[in-house]
Structure to design on (1012 residues):
C-alpha cells in the first residue's frame, strides 16, 4: 500500500498505481489525450502533466507510478498554461475539419479543445497534406488528423500482432502509415477494426457508406435487402442510450423495414443452420 | 652578419597595427647600440602566444618575452641581445592550464597495441578491482565524486550501486559512444587514441554492477573508432582480459559493438536501448529507469566514453587523488572540443573549475580573426551561449546550469561579432527539429513552430509578441517533453534571448541584423566611388537585378534583388556594400 | 532478386542470426554491401528473420544513415556541424545544389553525385569542410566547390 496525497487529498493505493489512476480514485480529473484505459501508456501527448510539490519538474500522470509520500498537485496556473500550450500546438497540426469529419462530436481532441475553451488559434497551421488512403472497404486513413498518440500502432503490433500499421519517418514529418508505406489494402491488415475503434480522432475511421445506402434505397429500380451481423442486435442499443447489452432484435428488424429494405436477413440464421448440421 | 633574430607581435586582443611604433623605436635603439647589422627584427604573423601585449621571441636563444613595454627595449638589448642572458620578469611563463588524465595516453601510446597499453599501467586497475570486490569498487568511485560526462552529470557511483542492487542475474553494461553533439569529437578521440582505457573502464563497471555482457554503442560515422575498439576487444580477448574467467577470477564478461545509425536522440538512454533492441530509437517514460528495467528488460547501466575512461586511473590512484582535482561538486577534469571562431581550435582537457576566459583566451588564444569575442556556446544543441561578462565563471556542472547552459558532452564553440544570435539559435533549434524522434507533441510540434518563429524574425516578419510566443512554447517543451532532447531543445533560444534580447529586438523592430548574417534583412548597394565599372557583379546576379554598362557604372534594383549576396562576393573592389 | 545478391544477404543473416539485437547491424551490413537497402532485400530479411516488414521499414525510415535509394558514384557530404556552419558551410551546400541541380538527399540524373549534409565530419579544425566519399576537403570557400566537382567529374 502506498500513501500519498493529491491536491491535499490523501490516497491509499496499491504499489504500481499511476498518478492518473490514483487521482481518479479520489475524483480528481487530470486531462489526458493519448492515454487509453485498455492500453499501456504511450506517454506521447504531454497533456497529463502534474507537479510533485517541492520540485519544479512536471511528470506525466498517465505513466508515472505514484510513490510513497508524494504530494501531487494537478492544477495550478503554470500547469494549466503548459497544458494549454501543448494543446494549442497539437491543434496547430490538425485540420479544422470537424464539420466534415466522421468523428465529429465523438472526437477526444474536440472534447479537450472544448474543455479548455479554445476559441482562437495561437499558432499558424502546419498540415502535411498526406493523401487519404481508402484502399480498403473497411477504413479511411487520414494521416493529417493523426495526433501521434500511438494507440493504433500499439494495438496493431503488440495486441493483435498483425503489424499492418507503423510509424514511418521521424520528427515533424513522421507519420503513421501501413507497413513500408504501402496502401492499407496491400498491407497485412485483416480489417479487425481495433485501430479505428481506439483512434481518438478521425485519423482512422470506418468507411462511411450511409449516403450510398440512402441512394440505393430511394432508387425504384433497386430491390434492397439487408443482413445484420449477430453482434449488432445487442450493440446498437448503446447508441440510443439503452443500457449496454440490451437485446434490440425486434426493434432493429422494424427499423430496417421502415427504412425501406424489402427483406431483412440475419447472419445468426446461417449460424444456427451450421450448428444444426 | 646577423646573429640573432627578434620576432615581434602585438598579441593584445583586437589590435592589429600596434607593432609599427614599437618596431621603429626598437630599430632606432638597435642603431644607437650599433647592433643594426647583427640583429634582425621581424614583425611576425603568429608567435603562438596570445593576449599578452607585445610579445618578443628571440632566436636562436628561444627566449620569449611577454607584455613588453617601450621602456624595456634598452634592457633587452643590453642583457639579452648583447650577452644572451634572459630577463626574468619579462619571461613569458605559460601557465599549465591543461591537465591530461583522460587524454593522457592519446598520441603517446599505440592505440592498436595492447602491450603498449599494458606497459603504461594498463589493466592494473582491473586486476586490483577484481581483488577488491564490487562493493569496494563502487565505494571508491562514489568517493571520487566522478559524475557522468555524457551531459547529465549523474553521480557514477550512485548509478552503479543502483544497478548492482536491482536483483537479477542477467545485467548489462553499455558504453554510450553515440556522441551526437554536432561539432564535438571528444569521445571519438578517446576511442581512437586509447581504446583499452575505455574497455578497462567497461570491465570494471561491469564487474561492479554484476554484468556479464557489455555493449559499445558507437556512431556509424566513426569508422576508425569502430575499427580500433574492435581490434582492442579482440586483443583483450586473446589475453584473457575479456570473456570467460577474467584474470582467472569468477568474473566473466563479453564485449560487443553495436552501431548507431544517424539519430541524435539515440544518445538518450531509453532510446539507445530501443535501438540496440532493433527498434526505432524513441525514448520511453522513466521510471522504470534502465537500472531497474533496461536492455531486454534487464537491469542496465549506461555510461559515457569519457566517464569510463576516467575509471581505471581512479582505481589505480585512489579516490582521494581524484577528488582533489576540480571544484566542490564537480571533480576531475573535462575534455572540451574548442572550435568555431577561435584561434587554436582543438581538443583540450582542463580541471573542472577552470574559467571560461582561460579556456577561450589563454588556451584558445581568443578569436582567430582578432574581432571582438561575442559568446561561447557550451552543451551543443541542449546548451546555451555565455556572453563576455560571464567568462570568469569557473566551468562546472552547476555553474553552467545557472547560466542557462549545460556542461553537455564537451562541445565549446567560440563566436565573434560576425555571428548573429538569432541565426545561432535557429541553427541549434533546426538541429533539434531534425533530430526529434517525433513521439511526443511538445517537442515534435513545438520545435517546428519555434523554428518558424525564428525564421520570421530573421526575415524581419515578426512582432514583439512573437518573442512571448517563443517563451511560451519553450516553457511547454521544457516541462512537457518526454525526453531530454525536447526538454532542452529550447535552451539555445532561451539563452540567446536572455543575453542578447537586444539583437532579437533589432531584427524585429528595425528589421536589421547587427551581425549582417540574416541576408533577408540586408540591402545591397553599389558604392559608386569604389566601383571600377567592370560589370562582374551584373553577370553574377541570378535575378538580373543589376543594370548599367561599362560607361555609366552599375546599380542594383532593390525591388528585384533577392539578397543572395552573389554580387557582394563577386566584386573584387569591395564596391558592393551590405547594410 | 539475382542469385548473387541473395547469397550476400544470406551470408549477412547467418553471421548475425545467433546474436540478440541484430536488426540494425544486419541493415548496416546490407547497406555496406549494396550501397543502400534494396526493397527486395528488405522483404527477404523480413521473411528469413521472421521480423514484420512494418518493423523493418519503421526502423529504416527512422535512422537517417540508411538509404532507400541507390547512391550516386560520388557521395558529397557537406558538413553542417557547428564549426563548419559558422564558417560558411551553408553557402557551400547552396553552391552544390546550384551546380548539381539537386536537393539534399538526391542523386544527380546521371547517377554521378549524391548530395547530403552531415553533422561534423570530426575535422572542425579544417572547417568549413566537405567529404567526397571518404576524402575530406577542408578550409573551403564557395569558389572551390566547382573545382572539386569538376575534378571528380573528370575522374569518372
Ligand atoms: C537527446 C540526448 C542525447 C544524448 N547524447 C549523448 C551522447 O551522444 N553521448 C553520451 O554519452 N550521452 C548522451 N546523452 C546522455 C545519456 O542519455 C546518458 O545520460 C549518458 O550516456 C549517461 O552516461 P554518464 O552518466 O556516464 O554521463 C544524451 C542525452 C539526451 C537526452
Ligand atoms: S491514427 Fe489515431 S490512433 Fe493512430 S496514432 Fe494517430 S491519432 Fe493515434
Ligand atoms: S522530447 Fe522529442 S525526442 Fe524526446 S520523445 Fe519527445 S519527440 Fe521524441
Ligand atoms: S495522457 Fe499522458 S502523455 Fe498523453
Ligand atoms: S563541424 Fe564540420 S567538421 Fe566538425
Amino acid at each position: 500500500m502506498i500513501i500519498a496525497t493529491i491536491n491535499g487529498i490523501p490516497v491509499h493505493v496499491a504499489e504500481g498505481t499511476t498518478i492518473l489512476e490514483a487521482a481518479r480514485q479520489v475524483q480528481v480529473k487530470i486531462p489526458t489525450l493519448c492515454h487509453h484505459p485498455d492500453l499501456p501508456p504511450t506517454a506521447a501527448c504531454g497533456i497529463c502533466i502534474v507537479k510533485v510539490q517541492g520540485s519544479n519538474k512536471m511528470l506525466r500522470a498517465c505513466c508515472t507510478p505514484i510513490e510513497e509520500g508524494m504530494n501531487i498537485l494537478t492544477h495550478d496556473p503554470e500547469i494549466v498554461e503548459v497544458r494549454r500550450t501543448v494543446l494549442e500546438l497539437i491543434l496547430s497540426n490538425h485540420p479544422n475539419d470537424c464539420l466534415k469529419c466522421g468523428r465529429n462530436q465523438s472526437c477526444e481532441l474536440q472534447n479537450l479543445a472544448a474543455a479548455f475553451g479554445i476559441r482562437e488559434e495561437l499558432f499558424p497551421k502546419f498540415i502535411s497534406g498526406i493523401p487519404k488512403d481508402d484502399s480498403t472497404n473497411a477504413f479511411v486513413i487520414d494521416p493529417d488528423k493523426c495526433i501521434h498518440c500511438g494507440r493504433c500502432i500499439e494495438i496493431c503490433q503488440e495486441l493483435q500482432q498483425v503489424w499492418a500499421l507503423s510509424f514511418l519517418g521521424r520528427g515533424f514529418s513522421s507519420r503513421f502509415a501501413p507497413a513500408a508505406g504501402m496502401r492499407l489494402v496491400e498491407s497485412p491488415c485483416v480489417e479487425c477494426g481495433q485501430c479505428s475503434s481506439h483512434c481518438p480522432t478521425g485519423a482512422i475511421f470506418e468507411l462511411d457508406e450511409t449516403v450510398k445506402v440512402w441512394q440505393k434505397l430511394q432508387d425504384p429500380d433497386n430491390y434492397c435487402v439487408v443482413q445484420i451481423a449477430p453482434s449488432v442486435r445487442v450493440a446498437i442499443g448503446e447508441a440510443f442510450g439503452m443500457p449496454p447489452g440490451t437485446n434490440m432484435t425486434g426493434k432493429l428488424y422494424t427499423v430496417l423495414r421502415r427504412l425501406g429494405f424489402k427483406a431483412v436477413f440475419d447472419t445468426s440464421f446461417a449460424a444456427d443452420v451450421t450448428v444444426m448440421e | 652578419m646577423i646573429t640573432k633574430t627578434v620576432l615581434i607581435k602585438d598579441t593584445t586582443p583586437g589590435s592589429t597595427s600596434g607593432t609599427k611604433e614599437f618596431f621603429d623605436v626598437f630599430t632606432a635603439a638597435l642603431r644607437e647600440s650599433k647592433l643594426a647589422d647583427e640583429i634582425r627584427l621581424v614583425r611576425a604573423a603568429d608567435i603562438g602566444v596570445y593576449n599578452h601585449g607585445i610579445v618578443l621571441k628571440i632566436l636562436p636563444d628561444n627566449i620569449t618575452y611577454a607584455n613588453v613595454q617601450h621602456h624595456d627595449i634598452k634592457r633587452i638589448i643590453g642583457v639579452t641581445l648583447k650577452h644572451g642572458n634572459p630577463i626574468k620578469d619579462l619571461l613569458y611563463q605559460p601557465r599549465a592550464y591543461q591537465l591530461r588524465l583522460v587524454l593522457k595516453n592519446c598520441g603517446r601510446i599505440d592505440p592498436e597495441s595492447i602491450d603498449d597499453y599494458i606497459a603504461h599501467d594498463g589493466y592494473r586497475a582491473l586486476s586490483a578491482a577484481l581483488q577488491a570486490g564490487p562493493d569496494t569498487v563502487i565505494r571508491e568511485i562514489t568517493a571520487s565524486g566522478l559524475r557522468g560526462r555524457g551531459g547529465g552529470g549523474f553521480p557514477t557511483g550512485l548509478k552503479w550501486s543502483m544497478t548492482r542492487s536491482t536483483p537479477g542475474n542477467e545485467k548489462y553494461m553499455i558504453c554510450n559512444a553515440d556522441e551526437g553533439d554536432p561539432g564535438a569529437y571528444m569521445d571519438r578521440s578517446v576511442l581512437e587514441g586509447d581504446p583499452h582505457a575505455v574497455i578497462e573502464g567497461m570491465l570494471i563497471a561491469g564487474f561492479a554492477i554484476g554484468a556479464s555482457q557489455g555493449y559499445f554503442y558507437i556512431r556509424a560515422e566513426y569508422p576508425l573508432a569502430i575499427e580500433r575498439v574492435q581490434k582492442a576487444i579482440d586483443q583483450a580477448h586473446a589475453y584473457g582480459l575479456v570473456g570467460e574467467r577474467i584474470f582467472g577470477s569468477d568474473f566473466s564478461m563479453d564485449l560487443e559493438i553495436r552501431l548507431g545509425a544517424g539519430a541524435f536522440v539515440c544518445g538518450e538512454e531509453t532510446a539507445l536501448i530501443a535501438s540496440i533492441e532493433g527498434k526505432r530509437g524513441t525514448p520511453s517514460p522513466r521510471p522504470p529507469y534502465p537500472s531497474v528495467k533496461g536492455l531486454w528488460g534487464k537491469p542496465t547501466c549506461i555510461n559515457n566514453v569519457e566517464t569510463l575512461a576516467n575509471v581505471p586511473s581512479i582505481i589505480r590512484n585512489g579516490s582521494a587523488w581524484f577528488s582533489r582535482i576540480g571544484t566542490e561538486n564537480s571533480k576531475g577534469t573535462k575534455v572540451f572540443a574548442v572550435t568555431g571562431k577561435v584561434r587554436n581550435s582543438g581538443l583540450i582537457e582542463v580541471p573542472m573549475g577552470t574559467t571560461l576566459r582561460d579556456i577561450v583566451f589563454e588556451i584558445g588564444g581568443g578569436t582567430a580573426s582578432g574581432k571582438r569575442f561575442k559568446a561561447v556556446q557550451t552543451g551543443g544543441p541542449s546548451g546555451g551561449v555565455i556572453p563576455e561578462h560571464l567568462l570568469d565563471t569557473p566551468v562546472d556542472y552547476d555553474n553552467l546550469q545557472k547560466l542557462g547552459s549545460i556542461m553537455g558532452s564537451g562541445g565549446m564553440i567560440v563566436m565573434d561579432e560576425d555571428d548573429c544570435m538569432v541565426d545561432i539559435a535557429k541553427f541549434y533549434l533546426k538541429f533539434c527539429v531534425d533530430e526529434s524522434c517525433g513521439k511526443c507533441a511538445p517537442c515534435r510540434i513545438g520545435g517546428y513552430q519555434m523554428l518558424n518563429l525564428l525564421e520570421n524574425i530573421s526575415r524581419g516578419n515578426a512582432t514583439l509578441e512573437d518573442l512571448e510566443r517563443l517563451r511560451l512554447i519553450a516553457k511547454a517543451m521544457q516541462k512537457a517533453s518526454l525526453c531530454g532532447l525536447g526538454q532542452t531543445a529550447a535552451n539555445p533560444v532561451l539563452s540567446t534571448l536572455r543575453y542578447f534580447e537586444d539583437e532579437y529586438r533589432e531584427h524585429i523592430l528595425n528589421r536589421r541584423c547587427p551581425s549582417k548574417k540574416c541576408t533577408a534583412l540586408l540591402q545591397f548597394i553599389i558604392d559608386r566611388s569604389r566601383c571600377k565599372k567592370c560589370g562582374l557583379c551584373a553577370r553574377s546576379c541570378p535575378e538580373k537585378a543589376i543594370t548599367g554598362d561599362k560607361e555609366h557604372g552599375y546599380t542594383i534594383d532593390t525591388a528585384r534583388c533577392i539578397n543572395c549576396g552573389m554580387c557582394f562576393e563577386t566584386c573584387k573592389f569591395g564596391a558592393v556594400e551590405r547594410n | 532478386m539475382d542469385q548473387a545478391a541473395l547469397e550476400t544477404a544470406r551470408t549477412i543473416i547467418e553471421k548475425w542470426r545467433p546474436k540478440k539485437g541484430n536488426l540494425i547491424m544486419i541493415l548496416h551490413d546490407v547497406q555496406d554491401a549494396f550501397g543502400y537497402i534494396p526493397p527486395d532485400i528488405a522483404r527477404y530479411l523480413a521473411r528469413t528473420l521472421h521480423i514484420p516488414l512494418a518493423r523493418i521499414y519503421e526502423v529504416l525510415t527512422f535512422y537517417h544513415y540508411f538509404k532507400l535509394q541507390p547512391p550516386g558514384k560520388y557521395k558529397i557530404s557537406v558538413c553542417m556541424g557547428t564549426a563548419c556552419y559558422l564558417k560558411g558551410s551553408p553557402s557551400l551546400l547552396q553552391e552544390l545544389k546550384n551546380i548539381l541541380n539537386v536537393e539534399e538527399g538526391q542523386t544527380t540524373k546521371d547517377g554521378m553525385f549524391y548530395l547530403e549534409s552531415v553533422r561534423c565530419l570530426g575535422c572542425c579544425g579544417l572547417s568549413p569542410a566537405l567529404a567526397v566519399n571518404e576524402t575530406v576537403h577542408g578550409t573551403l570557400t564557395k569558389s572551390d566547390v566547382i573545382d572539386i566537382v569538376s575534378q571528380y567529374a573528370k575522374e569518372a
Observations:
- The interface with chain C takes residues 180-185, 188, 220-222, 256, 258-264, 275-282, 295-296, 337, 339-341, 345-346, 377, 380, 411, 413, 415, 419, 427-428, 431, 437, 569 of chain B (CB under 8 Å).
- The first strand of chain B starts at residue 4 and ends at 10.
